[in-house]
Each structure stands twice: as C-alpha cells, then as structure tokens.
Design goal:
With about 100 residues, the protein is an all-alpha fold. The chain has three helices and no strands.
Length: about 100
C-alpha cells in the first residue's frame, strides 16, 4: 500500500527547514521553470513567482510525494510565500 518515492526522505528523521526549502525550490524550478534565483523565503507565490491555483495543486501533489503524507488542503490555504510553504511542510512532517 505504500508508494516508493525517489526523495529518500525518512519519516523517522526530522528534515531541516533548509532541506525542505531546497526541495520546494527544486520542484518550482523543475515543474514551473522558475529561475532558482527568484526563489527565496520571502518570495510570494502569486505575485512574485506567478504560481496560480492550478500550479498550487501541482505543487501540493509534489509535496505529498516528498513527505509521504496525506496533505490536507486546509494546511495550505493560508500559504502566500515560500517561507509559508516551508512552514506548512515542516508541520506536516511533524505529524
């Protein structure tokens, strides 16, 4: 029933904010072809990175694969910046 992931993350070992940020950056660069230099903690998803609601769904799907956990849309409802994404993923992984 468990799906294998290529991220190699373990649910037993805490993942640092830096590692989460690096994964979010990688996803944004690969999926949406955003310049890595534009992706910083204060960058706003919609205004600065042009991530729309459909893109946000794709991002959440990728984050689900990264964390190996079910993602509740409510967890990401108030996400506005890259820092917010990292915090939401961090909370998700602490469950």
């Amino acid at each position: 029933m468990s799906a294998s992931t290529s991220t190699g993350t373990s649910t037993d070992t805490p993942v640092s904010r830096e590692a989460i940020f690096a994964q979010v950056r990688k996803i944004l660069v690969e999926l949406f072809e955003i310049d890595a230099g534009d992706i910083h903690p204060e960058a706003r998803l919609y205004e600065d990175l042009d991530i729309d609601s459909i893109d946000a769904v794709d991002l959440v799907v990728e984050l689900k694969q990264f964390t190996g956990r079910r993602v509740n849309p409510e967890d990401f409802k108030s996400v506005r910046s890259i820092n917010d994404v990292v915090t939401a993923v961090e909370r998700l992984m602490q469950r």
